[in-house]
């Protein structure tokens, strides 16, 4: 019995040896690790509350719009933010697997055979997360004067509207061709 206890102690001691961090050789400083833990805790706390998350994001959008109207600038920052959000929206609306491009015929190819749920390329939570981070970064960028690059903003608005129209037209036609029904699935 004593010998078994000793063997277990050696195993536990060797496990502790390999899991201990060497002083001064950690990959991240303690401050960064504590910040990551706090951010992950906050992220886990807001995950089940979709309506609250999106209300906060709408608040950030309204704050950003107000900031742009007050400063009368940062049109290029707004344009880049719009392009990024459009890219995220397209990923959110795109199916994870396009039926024509998949080579394996595991799922039925006709809608009359069996119901196939719409699986998104980008989940709602990741879509919200990337939009919110983009808005935070854009708001921070409006406080740095060197990012207020003078541009002719009506051209940027016109180009963005045309890009949005063409992108959404292509996305809708692709979804109609693949017969994917975009219902809200989380």
TrEMBL record:
* Broad class of the protein's primary localization: membrane
Superkingdom of origin: Eukaryota
Q: Any stretches that span the bilayer, and where are they?
A: 51-70, 127-145, 151-168
Intracellular or extracellular location(s): Membrane
This protein's GO CC annotations: endoplasmic reticulum; Golgi membrane
Among Pfam families, the record links this protein to: Rer1
Which membrane topology describes this protein? Multi-pass membrane protein
Give the coiled coil ranges: none
One GO BP annotation of this record: retrograde vesicle-mediated transport, Golgi to endoplasmic reticulum
Give the UniProt keywords, A-Z. Answer: Membrane, Transmembrane, Transmembrane helix
Q: Tell whether Phosphoprotein is among the UniProt keywords.
A: no
Q: Does the keyword Transmembrane helix apply?
A: yes
The record's annotation in InterPro entries points to:
Rer1
- State the similarity comment: Belongs to the RER1 family.
Put simply, this protein is called: Protein RER1 isoform 1
Source organism per entry reads Schistosoma japonicum
């Amino acid at each position: 019995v004593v010998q078994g206890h000793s063997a277990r102690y050696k195993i536990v001691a060797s496990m502790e040896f390999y899991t201990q961090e060497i002083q001064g050789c950690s990959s991240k400083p303690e401050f960064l690790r504590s910040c990551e833990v706090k951010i992950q805790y906050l992220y886990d706390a807001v995950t089940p509350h979709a309506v609250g998350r999106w209300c906060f994001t709408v608040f950030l959008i309204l704050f950003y719009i107000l900031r742009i109207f007050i400063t009368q600038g940062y049109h290029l920052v707004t344009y880049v933010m719009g392009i990024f959000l459009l890219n995220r929206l397209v990923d959110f609306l795109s199916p994870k697997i396009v039926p024509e491009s998949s080579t394996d015929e595991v799922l039925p190819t006709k809608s009359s055979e069996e119901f196939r749920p719409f699986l998104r390329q980008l989940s709602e939570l990741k879509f919200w997360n990337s939009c919110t981070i983009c808005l935070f970064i854009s708001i921070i960028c409006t406080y740095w004067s060197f990012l207020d690059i003078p541009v002719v903003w009506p051209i940027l608005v016109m180009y963005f509207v045309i890009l949005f129209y063409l992108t959404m037209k292509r996305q809708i036609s692709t979804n109609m061709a693949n017969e994917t029904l975009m219902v809200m699935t989380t």
